[in-house]
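Kindly inspect what follows.
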Amino acid sequence: MTVAAPTRTWTPAHPLDVQAVLRPLRRGPGDPALRLAADGAWLAANTPAGPGSLHLAVRAGRVEATAWGAGADHLLDSAPGLLGAHDDDTGFTAHHPVVAEVRRRKPGLRLGATGRVWDVLLAAILEQKVTGTEAHRTWAALARRFGTPVHGDLHAPPTPEAVLGIADWQWHKAGLDGARRRALIAAAQVAGRLERAVELRGVEGRLLLRRVPGIGVWTAAEVAQRAWGDPDAVSVGDFHIPHVVGYALVGKRLDDRGMLEVLAPYAGQRQRAVRYVEAAGLGKPRYGPRLSPKDFRAI
């Protein structure tokens, strides 16, 4: 006898744009752990109970969530938070026309929270100091080779135990250089303790993550934005974000220091302002050659 997958329905108390909320979790167009659709999304993830998959469908203003696998109940419990139900933008004021306009046009853009560190930490480490193309290629390779198939062609990312079992030649085949490999292994060795960052939140949560060798300000911020929806964790050290923020808000290229100065009026909500800037889709002028992806599998 086939047992029906558990399902729950949730009615958001606010406008909801599922794609906008979940997009920061997507690691390239071929991401085996997240698929976005016009009416919802498919997600594969690790949970305290084990891996599982989650289907979210928006119909008539309601979210219908269905889950499979050992982590099904956990994923259903966390679905509202994943979609920004606990995001609090009280006191946020738009200090720039671009931010005000996007906020007006996209009321459903909220800061979601996975409630778990490991999956987003794994992805953030893979994205350290490489192009998105390189990081996404390695993410997909690791998920399909060492992750857990959970539903259809969805794969949950590798668990910490799986990461610790990967041989050197397999890392190389996946296209991972030594620095990121060492950071991943160091994080996997203390992964259970790092989950406490979600409870600490804010600066304390980010500082806990940074105790791991190879995890710096940028990586901790990337995790904080996704694991607990940190509204103030700006990705200082990013190759693109300071320039995007600079051109959108003051019409010129900025470095990290300049970006933080421009974002100062948004203290406590600086990452929310950055999300609005990114959603504006203005980009930045492109001059000269673009950064070329490097394939570490050939080195």
Remarks:
- Residues 7 and 79 are 11 Å apart (CA to CA).
